[in-house]
């Protein structure tokens, strides 16, 4: 493939050039309108590109293709599988040899495929076939629909074929509704579920655009969710709620405070039926704290949408800022932060996901000295959430980056909202070369928060409700079309704040159940039945 | 013959002529909305609600409002950004967004000078330790910040002198009134507005030296005077601009916050943030003529109509309670009407006053 570059009289680059191409000797090589050169026989020729009276040329010498034989073979299936399923990423090995039987690595080999879906009606089956980055003669393929897939390799006149039979993934299950803690007088925001010091299970949910309530629930029996306490703070939105791993400390984020100082509020939840406000902290958090995370004795709190601050809460009565991380870009904007194994994963809209060492040791960072590790951004700039995971037995490391977008507005009352966006699967196995490899996108809907446990992704997909997705093994392509979705549930409540308007905000699996908060209807408990 | 003519006119003249219609904009800081309102002398009508900001699920905080002297555009400052706040420019009537510019930390109150055409917006900055903040000077045609002048800690209440040549603001955390030359953008004078004893207000907290906590300054329309609300001292002070000293102190209700003066210069209206009330003060005697209860606990902004007939007051509300705008009848000294708007009502600006329609008699035959 040829590429042309052109500049105008001032030396400025011209974009989107579409010259006419021609070959000096089509018997040796031809060229199409896209600049793709096809060599036919040994010899010499010149390819010319011409546009607006300006020409550029390149000479080629065509030699005989040394590849005389091609063979394709399929890599091993994941452990336990006897057939390729939709969504399974299959490795394709290409063997290209010359007349003497030696490997020929320098000559390109192209792979394409043709599908024969089991169900030939409607659109044909599709898939994705691409070279494995950094590997020689290794490709990977994933199918979206069950059927037969013919993979063809070619180099000049030499060809090879491999046929794969792909069966349906058949991971589908269902969500069984177990219980609900309805909140219908105001919007609900995030949730956190934890085991209390007394061994019972509790949840806390925030409220949005309301009077600063955080609601506490006893969810020990998910079929009978009991509202046990309410803490009201000076805020209009308690967007995020988190509880420490030891079950003693709850942190509430604050936006819309009367004194405009916002910040966070620390609540002692040793007795969740009697939560007690211990302290507040607003130093340099005036812009409103949208999200927080607790890791050990440190709270990671978003400050003014520009950075996250690290706050030492070892003395809950006297929290103090000890560190901070800000994306080193013009006009940075942050929306969320999540900490696992000493690495902080922040979501930064157009600056994407940033991985920062806050104690892992990978880059010598600590809570007081956060250090950048890696990042990945994507064009839409909708990055709102990030969740890291390592599929079992795969050696792979992904970060799922979630969108949030309201191109159709946010309806506070009266009618449902129709957000947009999807989940981006970014392969961070090589931390220095992250690559977006797959997506999960429910049509006509928009993602919010997510959680992954035991290779199952739970996504609060706003108007598309709660979704459970099989994210086992390597992922590639369009997971929704590959049949990886396990189950879905729409929290539509006729008595909701906006009736019958599912708006799933956040999921959390806990002791065999999945809890979700819904913007219009409160807290729900579900069971994933497979 | 003459008698017959009068009788024919009587039915039309017996109808009370309609009063003018007041058009306003008011911001709801915690629901990211600006309301376009219309008041006919008896009741409000919500004409349009404008969603402000760019991130639907985050509170960005539209705070201060102003309308340019031509009445063609309205402006709203947005407190919370990344971290700097923004100034948005909208076309009046259609409420179409036409421009934006990034300012400093927590841009708040503002006004446009008739003399320079620039907009002067204080950057309130309650972000962390109290540091001197600034006034942003904005070319509103290009929507470009042309200068940023350091003034004092937590500046608030940006108001322009009637001739457009001076901008006044208060530094809430240094108890100062600060004067800026609108042409050179330089601070020309500073004045401590507490009484110097440290006893006029609450004891200083948090390491700053303020006790009076001035939150607003309002120039007199015709005299060389400005009035400053001392939120922490429960006083309004009158400052003689020629002598550059405090000339009088008026006691007020608890925590006076925003202030406006009637166009004839005889009365001052102040919101009492800590007293659920608005005070009307006679500027000649310094006496409070009336204290009018507001529809919500925390009154915030006030603007008086150019005809001096009504004052319009925003009330924040508490928690999830909606904010309101009250119309106060300055003749009857009572609340005439009220309308609910979004959460934490704050900034307010008067767009225009539409004269009453001509009596129908001229058009009827």
Characterise the protein shown here.
The complex is a heterodimer of chains A (530) and B (365). Chain A is mainly β. In chain A, 0% of the residues lie in helices and 48% in strands. Chain A is built from no helices and 44 strands. Chain B has 365 residues and is mainly beta. Chain B contains one helix and 28 strands. Chain B has one helix spanning 2-13, and strands at 21-28, 33-39, 44-51, 62-67, 73-78, 86-91, 97-102, 107-112, 118-123, 132-139, 144-153, 155-160, 166-171, 176-181, 187-192, 214-219, 225-230, 235-240, 245-251, 256-261, 267-272, 277-282, 288-293, 299-304, 310-315, 322-329, 334-343, 345-354. In chain B, the strands form seven sheets. Chain B has a four-stranded antiparallel sheet, with no helix packed on it. Chain B has a four-stranded antiparallel sheet with strand order 4-5-6-7, with no helix packed on it. The chains are: A mainly beta (530), B mainly beta (365). The interface between A and B is medium-sized, with 34 and 30 residues.
